[in-house]
Design a protein that fits this description.
Number of strands: 2
Shape: globular
Distance between the termini: 42 Å
Structural class: mainly alpha
Strand content: under 5%
Number of domains: 3
């Protein structure tokens, strides 16, 4: 099976992520923009052109092929059984989160109260669950996509709703690396669809950035939570001022966050 479509798709994603256009590629390759568009449309790349585009992206050819292979191998959603087993075993859940963030085996046992043999067993279980491919010397290949989706109404989503979102939003957002923004508006269906599409694209871009940074040592990274959410919403205190309007869904004033 040809790998060229996958490599082409990966390059397009990386160009978009770095806000580079076909015009930028054309200037770098010293070609016309039409030639570059035709090259991508026909998915015909010489090795020299691939290497030159990698230079523009500040990558090596090995980096490009590695990213392409990683995207091909990953799954985008767990099964109900996989999610439930993670919820039933906190240490397994912890190790799953660590490997998704690219932690080395040595990082896990040095940072957390998990003994070496226990960690080996937990990683072996993740291998059985098809979340990683266990390799020699406690290395592994991640089989979960960075932008994977939890099952609507499933064990992970219930955990996030009950244990994560409220505590997350109640934290301190005044530090330099933090950001919090809330906006309420009245939008048409077309505009709502546009906003949703852009949020979905941002999710993919953030996942790709995490994929890049996974290769950095642990002391060069820090854990960060990012919440993107949108739904029909009206504050409860405004609801009490409305005339009878059966089309509006009642809201609970005790839930100050957008889900």
């Amino acid at each position: 099976m040809s790998q060229i479509p996958l490599v082409s798709s990966t390059i397009k994603q990386l160009l978009k992520q770095q806000k580079l256009t076909y015009k930028d590629v054309a200037e770098h390759l010293q070609l016309s923009e039409a030639s570059v568009k035709r090259m991508f449309s026909n998915e015909q790349f010489s090795l020299q052109k691939l290497e030159s585009m990698c230079e523009l992206l500040q990558l090596t050819l090995c980096d490009l092929f590695d990213i392409s292979q990683t995207q091909q191998a990953q799954i985008s959603q767990l099964t109900v059984q996989q999610e439930q087993e993670l919820m039933d075993n906190p240490k397994l859940f912890l190790v799953a989160v660590c490997v998704r963030d690219g932690w080395l085996f040595e990082d896990i046992i040095s940072q957390y109260c998990i003994e070496e043999l226990e960690c080996v067993r937990l990683m072996a279980r993740l291998d059985k669950l098809s979340m990683i491919q266990l390799l020699p010397n406690n290395n592994y290949k991640l089989l979960i996509a960075q932008d994977f989706n939890w099952i609507p109404g499933g064990p992970l989503e219930r955990y996030i709703e009950q244990q994560v979102i409220g505590k997350f939003l109640q934290g301190d957002f005044n530090q330099e690396e933090c950001y919090r923004f809330y906006l309420r508006g009245s939008y048409s269906d077309a505009t709502i669809a546009t906003i949703k599409r852009r949020l979905q694209q941002l999710t993919k871009e953030v996942a790709q950035l995490n994929e890049q940074d996974i290769k950095l040592p642990l002391n060069k990274r820090q854990g960060v939570g990012l919440l993107l959410a949108m739904r029909p919403w009206q504050l409860g205190q405004f609801k009490s001022m409305l005339r009878n309007s059966p089309d509006l869904e009642p809201e609970n004033d005790a839930s100050p966050f957008v889900e």
